[in-house]
Amino acid sequence: MLLAHPVVLKNLIEQYETLRALHAEDGTEEARRRMDDVAYTLCVSTGTRDIDDTALVAARHQLPGARTEDDSLLAA
């Protein structure tokens, strides 16, 4: 599997978290649609199917400084 560049993953994580906060505050359709797009991109970039349980964990795991020896969260 190809891995996304850490800078791309970091940017996607930041976008997703910002959009999630915006959607929680005002719940606009635009924020929700953009959040869905970023979630999809994160899933594709990490080879996962679920944003909350696996894609965010997998993306963070691939960032520099991640504890690569501990993959217990990715075993499922």
Q: Could you explain the architecture of this structure?
A:
This protein is mainly alpha-helical. Helix content is 66%, strand content 0%. The protein contains 3 helices and no strands. It has helices at 6-26, 29-46, 51-61. Helix 1 runs antiparallel to helix 2 (29-46) and helix 2 packs across helix 3 (51-61). The longest helix is centred in the first third of the chain and has 21 residues, at 6-26. The protein is elongated, with a radius of gyration of 13 Å. The mean pLDDT is 80.
SSE map:
Layout: H1 6-26, H2 29-46, H3 51-61
Helix pairs in contact: 1-2, 2-3
Uncertain segments: none
**Biggest β-sheet strands, sense, barrel:** none
Q: What pattern of helices and strands is seen along the backbone?
A: HHH
Distance between the termini: 17 Å
How many beta-strand runs?
0
Mean pLDDT: 80
Rounded Rg: 13 Å
State the secondary-structure class: mainly alpha
Tally of DSSP helical segments: 3
- Helicity level, as a percent range? 55-70%
